[in-house]
Amino acid sequence: MGRPVIAITAETLDKHKGQNSTRYYQVMAKYVAPVVELMGALPLLLPPLGDQLDRDTLLARVDGVLLTGGVSNIEPHHYQGGQSYAGCPHDPNRDATVLPLIKEIVARGVPLFGICRGFQEMNVAYGGSLYQQLHIEADLALHNAVVDFDAPADALYADVHDLHIEPGGLLAKITDGPVQRVNSIHGQGIKQLGNGLTVEGTSPDGLVEAFSVANAKSFALGAQWHPEWKPTQNSMYEAMWRAFADAARSYAATHQR
Ligand SMILES: N[C@@H](CCC(=O)NCCCC(=O)O)C(=O)O
What we know:
The chain has helices at 29-37, 55-61, 92-108, 117-125, 134-138, 153-156, 170-174, 235-254; strands at residues 5-9, 11-15, 22-26, 42-46, 64-67, 112-115, 129-131, 161-165, 179-182, 189-192, 197-202, 208-213, 220-223. It is α/β, with parallel strands linked by helices.
């Protein structure tokens, strides 16, 4: 059997705005590295093509989907969230690509792993909602909600708060203790949990930090933190990638192409 193929969601970057704008579809290398190095998989970058994306063809050919993080925020009309705050970054192409894909991925039993924005996308796809500005709306101060992207990366992605793992869940099975440490780089967070999602972990202030999709046929996990950051230096981060890899390999083994 060959390597499993993992689709990785890209985001839109418009440079040189105005008359001569140039568009990039980009993925940060830290999301690709664990797919290649820990999962032994073939990464397939998925551009945010919206309606131009043939979802059937895509999902017939991949063995897993990774929903990446991203600086942009989901447009609040997707969760009846009212207006965005002034200057809020958005990526409507990505919303139009990823949000309609998520339930199809799960319905087919294709393994799914959502990180940060990807975790929020899963919540919204299942009918949940988000706090648009954690530090104002919910006074949840733990989360690096006002992110300084100019900070050195090791400081930005350092573990900053505890994660309390729900007993009996997917995360509890793959970790070696009920309290772990996680990093945190997000201004938004889960307000209302989506239908059919099971909480897997919370931060000390009660914010949902991880969930799985109840009754999914395969691995379907979302995490608010960044397990792609130096995963071999944190046993839980690494275990999450290994569990995703196991699911992708068993999916590949049972699906002839
Ligand atoms: N924009 C959302 C999601 C946060 C997120 O995905 N952060 C990642 C930033 C860059 C990276 O991928 O490392 C929010 O602010 O909550």
